[in-house]
Amino acid sequence: MPPKPLPLLALLADFQRACSELKVGWYLFGAQAALLYGSPRLTADADITVQLGQLSAQSFAATLQRHGFELRITDEAFVRTTRVLPILHRSSNFPADVVLAGPGLEEAFLERAAIRPIHGLQVPIAAAEDLVVMKVLAGRRKDEEDVVAVLSAQRGKLDLALIRRTLRDLSDALAQDDLLPLFERLLLEATDD
User: Are residues 121 and 134 in the same domain?
Assistant: First the structure.
């Protein structure tokens, strides 16, 4: 009997099949992506962004269900308000939060996502710079720890100017002046190692 695939890998393979059928772009981000870029933190779920274009969330959810997923929340108002579709991969019992990308920043993140092999499966992963931006924006202590770990592991490989520019644009759009100072503090922490 062949070995059972890792739960995350099984989820990603079925999610990829669903997205390929619909011809929609997607990428993995969050703690699972941070792990690939050097953060030692593990998590029991996956965070995925998908660009649906003209496809409705309901049509997307129906396709996911045909590919082995079930909705963890069926409240359409929740999905519409949060732009998050919580799902569960039935065969692996592995949960994921699927962010329904909007125009602008998430489209840029999708364009910069890089295909990386994970146990033989080619998976689009948020660029390390964009992951750092997302984690700085989230601002929880565990996100800050991920930023420090990624900055340290990817030292000399990151486009720091892109990170700063994106954070500046976000600061302007959100009228939030703490993003760039937080990044600079975390960068200093990462270089002190």
Answer: no
